[in-house]
Automatic annotation (TrEMBL):
Region (Disordered): 1-125, 143-167, 192-222, 380-401
Organism: Cryptococcus amylolentus CBS 6273
Protein name: YMC020W-like alpha/beta hydrolase domain-containing protein
Biased composition (Basic and acidic residues): 207-222
Entry-linked InterPro entries: YMC020W-like (IPR058934), YMC020W-like_ab_hydrolase (IPR058933)
Domain YMC020W-like alpha/beta hydrolase: 237-358, 404-607
């Protein structure tokens, strides 16, 4: 399991649960230029890095200080980039406490009476932060590491077989003619028939997992690029123009800024972090002609008002419009309430034709008419044959030339199912929200019911986004004090393009912790296309952090959180078509949960044949881990008591010693 770099959060900062919605480190900014509205995106600046990155390389250019101009930043070119910031995992020197004696002070370097020097105090061990499951642990194991099974065709009847034999030479001639037409079409559109190459990945013949019942699940899930067909680099080799958009979450009332400070978890922060992840990816590939545009979108308010503000901010910058429409790949990074806003924003951009997919040819045509063509203009609605050809071959045309664009969204701690239910019943927080906060804060609690109007509108937008093959990463935080894990992972939603991951704060949990492994196991089930029987929903409340914690804000401090979305877009294939619709299971946070349902959930998962076939090692580790787990809180102790039966009987029946026979008595 790949570990993540430790977070750089200040330990003394405890701004409360409302501060954690928007908290982030300072020092990352994008240079603002008053000429952002001109130039058409052809001239760009440099991506600004932290000061640590500037000190490591004296040859890099130091960024100019941020201006006070409120105009939008210009698109950014990365043809010349400063080096990336140094790894945060490097050991840091800590001050050594002075040694104390009997009424006198002794330094560590001063010898004692017996001539031996005092030992140096040991530095406390720092647990690394984790993002699990990683891309490799999800795509390099069954069922995603297996080739897609061919669709089974119904057996032909004897009558149909006889008719097929009667065609004879005419059928053979027609078949050759279609092959010739297909070869000519492939030559014209530049799309070669799929064939196995030396770079293709093959199934691991020694893999024993998933050969039985597990082979029947996950058939519509994306696979790693190059598995069986094509090359391992086909997902990114034609990408040279990338646009990164950042959308911040909900900000508290400005009257509280004098107490908790200015919010720093901004759109600029998210755009910079995603930009670093993209640049790191292409630097490892040796690509030096990447054009990267950062597009931080700012605006506060309710969800509908924010969508309007952000879309107007995008339209007010011609450079952003030009770069977005000419991009090969587009990334959206959002946090908390911004995840809902970003989903509506992507849906509007697709409907207006600013983002090109395989299903919005007519919208793209209208956008081309309004803003001008950029490459291959999709055919109009009056020519269905040409439109079908465009949709069929647009995947082989780069996005910069008018082809289909690659789009991914990173949703960090999104309020898909609202905040924690305990917050909505708190006698301390509710008066604050009622008297001091605006309607945007109260609107978040409406997502606790999937039948509410705001939730239904969000579900329609998400369904439209997934239908257009936008890939979504749902990242939850283990000790989130605001959003439950079941809400951030949208546990009641099912779709092949949804990829779930969990951020684990090393200061709160370890990789060997039973609860961490159990939640990781539940996420592995969902990523494999298996229902978790609402296991995550029953475990979320027990892992929630304190209201003064920082679990809601720490995920966007880790670069690996953003790298997961980059790998998912460039290393994963599209899902099998036709895509199934988004499925939402009804949910209401106010519904009472039966505590005795948890043992039955685990019993159903442990005994499921596909689970035993795909995850034998994980089941064994969980059965052994529950025995040695030492929970501290009362809630976790109750969970252990309910889950202990999954370990089985620890003592076996022993045979009775040989007793004398009745004949010898």
């Amino acid at each position: 399991m790949r570990t993540c770099k430790p977070s750089g959060m200040e330990k003394g900062d405890r701004g409360g649960w409302w501060r954690s919605l928007s908290r982030g480190p300072k020092g990352l900014w994008v240079e603002k230029d008053g000429k952002a509205g001109s130039g058409g995106g052809e001239e760009g600046g440099e991506v600004d890095m932290p000061e640590e990155a500037q000190k490591t390389d004296p040859d890099t250019l130091a960024p100019a200080p941020p201006t006070h101009d409120d105009t939008a930043p210009t698109p950014i070119s990365t043809t010349e980039q400063p080096s990336l910031p140094p790894s945060k995992s490097e050991p840091q020197t800590t001050p050594k406490p002075p040694a104390s004696g009997r009424g006198c002070r002794a330094s560590p370097n001063k010898a004692t009476k017996n001539g031996s020097a005092l030992p140096h105090p040991l530095a406390p061990s720092v647990q690394p932060n984790l993002v699990i499951n990683t891309f490799a642990t999800t795509f390099d194991r069954p069922p995603r590491s297996f080739l897609l099974l061919p669709p089974t065709s119904p057996p032909s009847s004897p009558t149909a077989t006889a008719k097929q034999e009667q065609k004879g030479l005419a059928a053979t001639t027609t078949g050759y003619a279609w092959k010739v037409f297909g070869a000519v079409g492939s030559y014209v559109y530049g799309e070669a028939p799929p064939k196995t190459t030396s770079e293709s990945l093959n199934e691991d013949e020694g893999e024993t997992r998933g050969r039985g019942e597990g082979r029947k699940v996950g058939g519509d899930l994306p696979r790693r690029v190059g598995l069986g067909v094509g090359g391992a680099h086909d997902g990114w080799k034609n990408v040279r123009r990338v646009v990164v958009a950042g959308v911040h979450g909900w900000f508290p009332a400005k009257m509280s800024n004098s107490i908790i400070g200015e919010p720093t978890g901004t759109s600029v922060k998210f755009a910079n972090m995603m930009g670093q992840a993209v640049k790191q990816f292409f630097d490892e590939k040796g690509v030096d002609d990447l054009r990267l545009t950062l597009m931080p979108l700012e605006g506060e308010g309710t969800i509908d008002s924010r969508v309007d503000k952000l879309y107007k901010a995008y339209l007010s910058n011609p450079a952003w419009i030009n770069d977005l429409r000419r991009a090969d790949a587009i990334f959206f990074a959002a946090h908390s309430q911004g995840c809902i806003v970003t989903t509506h924003l992507i849906s509007r951009m697709i409907a207006q034709g600013h983002i090109r997919t395989s299903h919005n040819a007519e919208a793209v045509s209208r956008c081309e008419w309004a803003f001008g063509p950029i490459g291959v203009v999709p055919p109009s609605s009056s020519s269905p044959h040409r439109r079908h050809s465009y949709e069929q071959h647009s995947s082989s045309i780069p996005g910069a030339e008018g082809g289909k664009q690659k789009v991914a969204m990173l949703s960090m701690c999104g309020v898909h199912l609202g905040p924690l239910y305990s917050i909505s019943t708190s006698s301390v927080i509710q008066p604050y929200l009622q008297w001091f906060e605006n309607a945007a804060a109260r609107e978040l609690f409406e997502f606790q019911d999937t039948t509410s109007p705001v939730s239904l509108a969000y579900q329609r937008a998400l369904a439209m986004v997934l239908e257009n093959e936008v890939r979504v990463v749902l990242l939850a935080s283990l000790n989130d004090q605001v959003v439950p894990i079941y809400g951030a992972s949208f546990s009641c939603a099912t779709h092949p393009l949804l990829l779930r991951a969990l951020y684990v704060d090393g200061a709160s949990y370890t990789q060997s912790d039973f609860m961490t492994n159990l939640l990781c196991f539940a996420f592995m089930l969902r990523n494999a296309g298996i229902d978790d029987e609402r296991l995550v929903e029953h475990l979320s409340e027990a892992t929630a952090g304190g209201l003064t914690g920082l679990g809601h804000s720490t995920p966007y401090e880790e670069l690996s959180s953003f790298s997961l979305a980059v790998n998912y877009l460039f290393y994963a294939t599209p899902a099998r078509k036709p895509l199934p619709p988004l499925q939402i299971e009804p949910f209401n946070a106010r519904d009472a949960r039966n505590d005795f349902e948890l043992p039955w959930i685990m019993r159903a998962l442990v005994d499921a044949p596909e689970v035993k076939d795909l995850f034998p090692g994980e089941l064994k580790d969980l059965k052994e881990g529950i025995v040695h787990w030492k929970p501290v809180t009362r809630t976790l102790k109750d969970i252990k008591r309910r889950l202990e039966p999954m370990a089985g009987r620890q003592s076996r029946l022993r045979p009775l010693p040989n007793s004398p026979s009745s004949a010898s008595l």
